Amino acid sequence: MKDLINTIQHLLEAFFQEVGDILLFTGDVVRQFFTAPFEWKELVRQAYYIGNKTLPLIGITGFIMGLVLTMQSRPVMESFGAESLLPGMIAVSIIREIGPVITALLCAGKISSGIGAELGAMKVTEQLDAMEVSGAKPLNYVVATRVLATTFLVPVLVIMADVVGLFGSYMAIAMNEDLSFMLFLSLAFDSLSFVDIIPATVKTFIFGFFIGLIGCYKGYTADRGTESVGRSANSAVVTASLVIFIIDLLAVQFTSLLGAS
Amino acid sequence: MEIVIDIKHLKKAFKRNEVLKDVNLQLAKGENLVILGKSGTGKSVLPKCIVRLIEADRGEIHVLGKDILKLEATELDEVRKKVGYLFQGGALYDSMTVKQNLVFQIRRTQLEKNKAELRDLVEEALANVGLKDAMQKMPAELSGGMKKRIGLARTLILKPSIILYDEPTTGLDPVTAGEISELILDVQQKYNTSSIIITHDMKCARMTSNSIRIMKNGKFEVVGSYDELRHSDDPEVRAYFS
């Protein structure tokens, strides 16, 4: 019993230590956003690299997401004679919840782990130290640029996943009935309001920020030794995914307060 | 004799492991000082403390007359520009070509230079290490020895007055290790740099050192020239030279 209490105590201490360290790191990174000179060229390079690397995955996943969701929902809606509500239901589901969360989780797996491994390797091979000694702040050049790139890229990727997902949904409907794409869009967007779109969009920026931040934090604080590179990547995915769900939960509560539910 | 690095009673511990207990050291201008010691004795911690990559717990470190433990970030950057650091593996930036690695080093200090001037600086630095043709190569295409040479070129491009070498010949074959040692000597003679060289390689120590210090129990317990220490009465000291 005493061992169990000790273990729980250590786990809690480690958890709060980690949360505290992440908060301090966040403060340092945010300060770099406003510290001149900002590395715009590196920001663009990172944004291009991240977008280019993730776009095909998001596109394919988004399309399948819309297609499968519609195919699975159709029999239920049919049994109630409510097929005409299908485009609206799918649009609300994708834009409010599934699109942002699935895209963010994919980005956590692809981007956050990539950043964690890259920075971890840079730490192990002393590249971050070399940068520090040369007077170039790695927090500014390496971290701030990646965090800003994900903050602005993830919303773009979510919008793309939403659009492709809706197209996938239309394809699933069009397989069974004669519905024009324009009518599908009209039915879909009739069900949406700004209260659906704005909070969903705002939370994607927060997802993006934390996807980049956690990847950078895990890589930046990696131990010396090659095995820590893999550990950083793995830990970045797990932590980023957990944070995405927590943010989503908070966003749902916030949206409920706005009266959207 | 002008002293460029003056360390007094330096202490550094990692949790309960006291790595540097009472380190005192003076480096004179133009001197090559070699530090020997068993693995895990904190040899590599010392140069990191000198440039404040690792914060010392206690003591004083004066670099070029500045008490670096008390400097603000911008003042520290100014001192760091005058102190070159050759990391164990070269620490080249993987995502950049050799040329970009070198330009990255100087772009903050020499922004006013145009492309042709930057190219000349890069070419000069690479010529110094005999790798002028490697300009467009990526670090992954380079051998261990080439990486260290490029690392040295990247250090030299800022024309530092002090260079800290962290195990410059570790992992290299004897021929390449000898070439790197010669390069260290060339750099000292050409630019009149002062250097601290952390190494296990006795050939490197023989070729490059003006004086040697052996680290033991977190202190420098043995000081002398290569020849003095080779004939030391202490069998533990002589073991380094056998």
Automatic annotation (TrEMBL), chain A:
Its cellular-component GO annotations read: ATP-binding cassette (ABC) transporter complex
Bilayer-spanning residue ranges: 55-73, 85-108, 147-173, 204-220, 240-260
Q: Mention any Pfam family matching this sequence.
A: MlaE
Q: Which UniProt keywords apply?
A: Membrane, Transmembrane, Transmembrane helix
Q: What are the recorded GO MF terms, alphabetically? A: phospholipid transporter activity
Task: Tell me which domain of life the UniProt entry assigns to the organism this sequence originates from.
Answer: Bacteria
Name the PANTHER family on file.
ABC TRANSPORTER PERMEASE PROTEIN-RELATED, PROTEIN TRIGALACTOSYLDIACYLGLYCEROL 1, CHLOROPLASTIC
What is the official name of this protein in its record? Phospholipid/cholesterol/gamma-HCH transport system permease protein
According to its UniProt entry, this protein's organism is: Sunxiuqinia elliptica
Automatic annotation (TrEMBL), chain B:
On whether Nucleotidyltransferase is a keyword of this UniProt record, the answer is no
Q: Known InterPro entries for this protein?
A: AAA+_ATPase, ABC_transporter-like_ATP-bd, ABC_transporter-like_CS, P-loop_NTPase
Q: Name one GO molecular function term.
A: ATP hydrolysis activity
Q: Which SUPFAM superfamilies match?
A: P-loop containing nucleoside triphosphate hydrolases
Q: Which UniProt keywords apply?
A: ATP-binding, Nucleotide-binding, Transport
UniProt name for this protein: Phospholipid/cholesterol/gamma-HCH transport system ATP-binding protein
Which residue range or ranges hold the ABC transporter domain? 5-242
Q: What is the organism field in this record?
A: Sunxiuqinia elliptica
Question: Which lineage do the record's taxonomy fields give for this organism?
Answer: Bacteria, Pseudomonadati, Bacteroidota, Bacteroidia, Marinilabiliales
PANTHER family found in the cross-reference section: INTERMEMBRANE PHOSPHOLIPID TRANSPORT SYSTEM ATP-BINDING PROTEIN MLAF, PROTEIN TRIGALACTOSYLDIACYLGLYCEROL 3, CHLOROPLASTIC
